[in-house]
Amino acid sequence: MLTERIQALVDRHVAGSPRARELLAALEGRRLQVKVKFTPWTVGATADGGRLVLARHAEGAADVVISGTPLALLALSREAPADVIRRGDVKLDGDGEVAERFQELMALLRPDLEEELAQLIGDVPAHGAASLVRRVMGYGRSVARTQAQNVGEYLAHESGDLVPRAEASAYLQGVDALREQVDRVAARVNALESENRS
After folding, report:
1. 111 with 13: CB under 8 angstroms?
2. What burial class does residue 32 get, using C-beta atoms within 10 Å of its C-beta: 0-12 exposed, 13-18 middle, 19+ buried?
3. Residue 21 confidence (pLDDT) above 70
4. What does the pLDDT look like over 135-176, one tens digit per residue?
């Protein structure tokens, strides 16, 4: 039942967007698969006859596969997808050109969740629910950043498995300075050799 509602929402957005229809024509027959990590959910979307046809249990080969945790995949709808992928929160495999077209299509079809929810439960409850989701996602990102920072500090300072950033930076600057000195010495040796030949 939920899939049918989402399909109707997608169809409505496609009908209202000439660019979405153009992209669907270019993507005809192409498949996108979304794998939700740590869950049994895999969702598919196929460009078929001017529609983006959704399937709850997508199996078989896909042109583009997107995988990530539920929160990371949800972040794709709130942030620039390129930023989420660059951070490594979401993994993208497959044909790059097809992925770009699907990405543009998804951006065009991205619903305003608060507006869609307002049609079901009313304006005030929808606003409250959307605010709660935003706060929860902000808290989740904050917790993830703090955990990553804590693990990095532990590995660098407590266990000694990693080199602290300041030490690594100083080491790399030393390597660069040494490389420059070696280049200057090599240039002097080459100059002396050419003088001796003449």
Report:
1. yes
2. buried
3. yes
4. 665 666 676 678 777 777 777 777 777 777 778 788 888 888
Q: Work out whether the CA dihedral 41, 103, 60, 25 comes out positive or negative.
A: positive
Q: Please report, as a single letter, which amino acid is at residue 108.
A: L
pLDDT tens figures, 96-107: 888 888 888 887
Q: What is the pTM of this model?
A: 0.53
Domain range summary for the chain, segments of one domain joined by +:
2-111, 116-162, 164-198
Residue 116, classed as helix, strand or coil, is helix
Topology of 2-111 in CATH? Nonspecific Lipid-transfer Protein; Chain A (3.30.1050)
Measured N-to-C along each axis, helices 2-15 and 18-26 cross at an angle, to the nearest 10 degrees, of: 110
Nearest 5°: the CA angle 136, 43, 26 is: 110
Indicate the DSSP class of residue 35. Answer: E
